[in-house]
Amino acid sequence: MDTLGLPVVITVTPADTTDRDAARELLWRLWVMQPQITQVWADSAYADQLINWPGDFLNMTRKTVSRPRGARGFVVLPRRWKVERTLGWIMKARRNVRDYECLPQHSEAHLTWALITLMTRRITRKGPQPAWS
User: Fold this and answer.
1) How far is Cα 72 from Cα 74, in angstroms, rounded to an integer?
2) Running DSSP on this structure, what letter comes out for residue 91?
3) Helix spans in 6-98 (H)
4) How many helices (H) and strands (E) in the chain?
5) What do you get for the CA distance between the two ends of the chain, in Å?
6) Residue 65 — φ and ψ, nearest 5°?
7) pTM score of the predicted model
8) For 12-22, how does the pLDDT look when each residue is reduced to its tens digit (9 = 90+)?
9) Beta partners for residue 41, in sequence order
10) What's the rounded Cα separation, in Å, for the pair 5 and 8?
11) What is the pLDDT confidence band of residue 50, given thresholds at 50, 70 and 90?
12) How many alpha carbons lie under 13 Å from residue 112 in its C-beta half-sphere?
C-alpha cells in the first residue's frame, strides 16, 4: 500500500506460506515495478527477517511500525490502519469474501480488478467527498 492506502503491488500466496516468507518476493516485485519507492513501512513481525535485506539489495529503507510500549488493549497503529481500511474495501467485492480461485494468479487478477473498480468509483463520485475517504 502507498501512503494513501492504495495498493501498489498485490501478491497472493498459498495458505502454508507465511507473510514473512513472502515479503522478499513482494519487495523484489515492488522494486522491479516501482523503483522510485525507497522507503518501506513494515509490521514488527517482519523485523527479524528483513533487517538489512531491503537496504542491501534493493536500496530501500525499512521502518518498523510497532505498538507503543505500555499500551493495553486496542491501539490504532500509525500507517497500519490504512492497510486495514483497504482490506475492508476489498471485502465489499462479494467474490473476495470467499476463495473461489484455483490459482494465485487468478486471485491477484481479481483483487486488482476489484480495486480498479473501487478507485474509479471514488474518482468519479459526484457531490462532496468526505474527509475520511
Assistant:
1) 7
2) T
3) 19-33, 53-58, 80-90
4) 4, 2
5) 15
6) -100, 115
7) 0.65
8) 888 888 777 78
9) 63
10) 9
11) low
12) 11
User: Cell 497472493 belongs to which residue?
Assistant: 12
Query: What pLDDT was estimated at residue 9?
Result: 81
Amino acid sitting at position 132: W
Cα 110 to Cα 104: distance, rounded to the nearest angstrom: 10
Task: Tell the residue number behind the cell numbers 468526505, with chain if given.
Answer: 130
CA dihedral 61, 30, 78, 59 (to 10 degrees): 0
Are the beta carbons of 96 and 114 closer than 8 angstroms?
Answer: yes
- For residue 82, the one-letter residue type is K
| DSSP SS3 for 12 | coil
The percent of residues above 90 in pLDDT, for the chain, comes to 0
Specify whether the backbone of 107 is left (phi greater than 0), alpha (psi in -120 to 50) or beta. alpha
86-124 pLDDT tens trace: 777 777 776 666 666 677 777 888 888 888 888 888 778
Distance CA 118, CA 90 (A): 8
Q: Cell digits for 73?
A: 488493549
